[in-house]
Amino acid sequence: MAAGTVSVSLIDPDWAVEVTPASAADPTTFSISNNGSLVHNLRVIRTDLDPDSLPSDSSGFQVDEDQVNVVAFISELTSGESTELAVDLETGSYVLICNIPGHYDQGMRTGFTVE
User: Fold this and answer.
1) Into how many domains does the chain fold?
2) Rounded-to-integer distance, Cα 92 and Cα 39, Å
3) How far is Cα 26 from Cα 105, in angstroms, rounded to an integer?
4) What CA–CA distance (Å, rounded) separates 95 from 68?
5) Which domain holds residue 13?
């Protein structure tokens, strides 16, 4: 698989992180768009856990970023905003999430593989 651009769409009210393609080679550039009406962010987490099994913080509304390996992130994107994130990722499994309180639990998470 060739290195290249991976499209990431942050969506509400369907509460999804859509990634195309679902795998890539290093280096990778994520082209991220907030296609929802709310503010979103993106965390790239290196993990072998299932996307829906990440540990919650004490509030229960966010993933506890101290208990996972966040290897790249973007801060908040407002509705309609886009940005790019160029990263060097090791071969393995990742989970991409929005970690705004409540968004991960609503379904804003997906698996991603670097080959």
Assistant:
1) 1
2) 29
3) 29
4) 10
5) 3-114
- In whole angstroms, give the CA distance from residue 62 to residue 98: 9
Tens of pLDDT, residue by residue over 11-66, are: 999 999 999 999 998 899 999 999 999 999 999 999 999 999 999 999 999 999 99
The H-or-E segment that residue 104 falls in is helix 103-106
**How is residue 30 written in tokens?**
């994520």
Within 10 Å of residue 86's Cβ, how many Cβ atoms? 10
How far, CA to CA in Å, does 40 sit from each of 6, 25, 28, 36, 73? 18, 26, 21, 8, 11
Confidence of residue 2 (pLDDT cuts 50, 70, 90): low
Residue 1 scores a pLDDT above 90 = no
Q: Can you give the CATH number for the domain in which 100 is found?
A: 2.60.40.420
